[in-house]
Design goal:
Layout: H1 10-18, H2 31-58, E1 62-68, E2 72-79, E3 83-88, E4 98-105, E5 113-118, E6 123-127, H3 130-136, E7 141-148, E8 161-166, E9 168-169
Antiparallel strand pairs: 1-2, 1-9, 2-3, 3-6, 4-5, 4-7, 7-8
Amino acid sequence: MPAVAPPAHVWPRIAAAVGTRRERPTRGVGLWQALAASLAAVAVLLGGLYFNQTRSVDQAQYVAVVTDQQTGPVWLLQAFARELRVSTVNPRPAPAGNSYELWMLQGAGLPPVSLGLIPGTGNAVLPLNAAQLGVLAQTMTLAVSLEPAGGSPTGLPTGPVIFTAPLLRV
């Protein structure tokens, strides 16, 4: 049987009987709807920026565990956006007249770069400057040397390198 279009007066009666007849608004989106949609978009954007920023501030970007083969982990090192947090896991006081100094090994014949002195016991926070952060991004290995009290007088390791640890990007 071929399809037949119903007369025009039938559809309005059906819609009225069912109770679903609605007229479409003849004007565009209202001011309040546009304002609400704009504010929702701004809230989503600011929320994304906030959570992305707190992640980069609160979450370590690099991690290393300096380990002694006989006694296990000695230091946990966590590099954040502007600082290096050093946590002593297994206290190892430096010998009298000496300090532990942490170095970034650049490789390819480039000299090591100091990150500063680290404690044998307790914790420390070492600030990281832009130059150190640049080297840190290219570094795969950290080293700890035993230096005279106060650190290396030459800016390069002068004492024995007693530990090395891989630097992991998180």
